[in-house]
Amino acid sequence: MKNQNTRRDFIKKTAMGTGAAMATPYFSWNQKAFANQEKNDKPNIGCIGVGSMGTGDAQGHARFGNVVAVCDADEKHALRAKNHKNIGKGKADAYEDYRKVLDRKDIDVVSIVTPDHWHIKIAIEALEAGKHVFCQKPLTLTLEENQLIRRACEKHKDLAFLVGTQQRSDRNKFMRAVNMVQKGLLGKIKHVTVGINGSPTGGPFPVADVPKELNWDLWQGQAEDKDYRQRRCHYEFRWWYEYSGGKFTDWGAHHVDIAMWALNQNGAKQGPVEIDGTNCEHPVEYKDGYATVDDCYNTSHKFSVKHRFADGITMDVNSAGDNGITFEGEKGRIFVNRGKIVGKPIEENWDKDVYTDEAVTELYKGKPHEGHKNNFYRCIREGGLTVSDPFSHVQAMAACHLSAIAARLGRKITWNPLTEKIMGDEQAAAMIARTPRKGFEILKV
């Protein structure tokens, strides 16, 4: 108990930050600056969702604290993480029910790497339980969930919250592109192309026996109860609108986020005003915005969704061409993705005098540049917004969700970013939320 109180008191006291901590270029919970040097003064971490991506994230978190609990609806995943030499080390407790992780008073941080349709429910309950939260992208599944998580984060401003959009921490490519656009080096931006590729197609997939180690009812959560099909579960959930948003919320959560960050369109009451989904195709037949079959992937595989902002800038979120973002300005254009940043402005170093350490720190919200999770644990210690904060992220997610709604309906919709409502289209407006399955309702705070 003595160590637990020391750890929590330290985290609380240092939320305001210290000059010594700010001067440290790379923060580690193992540094001597941390508390009183006792082994147990590292934060305790609970990892909820430890499949393929969750395993990687759990190993990342383990560098900063003690992973004392792992949780997954698939017992095989949970036991693997428990016994992983870089995660649970055979000592962590393994759970099926995430609420047992949140109930533990000794856990300071939770990592949420579940399928998308579980993110917000767990994240809000984690905040209410007093935990700092890391949650993988996309943070939300619907436009309503954007509002719910924003409200919860506003209520719990003392808790750090980081979204797993790690491109925001890429100094050499994405941050450089954002700085170049924001500093006006490309001139007034006219058009942005966001290439996110199309979802795969597949099916019909047969009904199968639920694996003995998987709690299928729990895995489905708030989604409608369906027969188990192997390709509906684990990584493949991304290609079903019931659980995700296809490429709109997969790669879109990354690239649309960068585009809107660069355009300064990721603040409250900002975003597109018109979204045109007339040039979109789905791999199965649709009626009134919903797939008519439930045994095939159903997210859009071919699309070009045109967004128009109030200032006249247009953004095309499409499945054609290279994966990445093209910014076109009156003076020049650049293309950036995870492999490169190219264009005449880059070749000629137009930003050599403006992409300074100070500019990087500004993009990092006043924190020194470092690894994505490093920033999270620094903000737990010092306070302040993380580089990928939930408030700006939900603005990008709004564009992603609007893309999916327009594509599913195959028409143009009008969005009022001030009221966060779809205007003049009752059918489209009804798709901003969905009714959760009984017993899996999302907490509203």
Spell out the blueprint of helices and strands:
Blueprint: H1 2-13, H2 19-23, E1 44-48, H3 52-62, E2 66-71, H4 75-83, E3 93-95, H5 98-102, E4 109-112, H6 119-128, E5 132-135, H7 143-155, E6 161-163, H8 174-182, E7 189-195, H9 216-220, H10 252-262, E8 272-276, E9 280-281, E10 286-287, E11 290-291, E12 302-309, E13 314-318, E14 324-329, E15 333-336, E16 341-342, H11 344-347, H12 357-363, H13 372-382, H14 390-409, E17 412-416, E18 421-423, H15 426-429
Helix pairs in contact: 6-7, 7-14, 8-10, 10-14
How would you describe this structure in keywords?
445 residues; alpha/beta; Rossmann fold; Dihydrodipicolinate Reductase, domain 2; 2 domains; six-stranded parallel beta sheet; 15 helices; 31% helix; globular; disordered N terminus
Describe this structure in words.
The chain is an alpha/beta fold. It folds into two domains: 2-167 and 375-382, Rossmann fold (3-Layer(aba) Sandwich), CATH 3.40.50; 169-355 and 390-432, Dihydrodipicolinate Reductase, domain 2 (2-Layer Sandwich), CATH 3.30.360. 31% of the residues lie in helices and 17% in strands. It is built from 15 helices and 18 strands. The chain has helices at 2-13, 19-23, 52-62, 75-83, 98-102, 119-128, 143-155, 174-182, 216-220, 252-262, 344-347, 357-363, 372-382, 390-409, 426-429, and strands at residues 44-48, 66-71, 93-95, 109-112, 132-135, 161-163, 189-195, 272-276, 280-281, 286-287, 290-291, 302-309, 314-318, 324-329, 333-336, 341-342, 412-416, 421-423. The strands form three sheets. Strands 7, 8, 9, 12, 13, 14, 15, 16, 17 and 18 form a ten-stranded mixed β-sheet that branches. Strands 3-2-1-4-5-6 form a six-stranded parallel β-sheet, sandwiched between helices. Strand 2 (66-71), helix 4 (75-83) and strand 3 (93-95) form a beta-alpha-beta unit. The longest helix has 20 residues, at 390-409. The radius of gyration is 22 Å and the shape is globular.
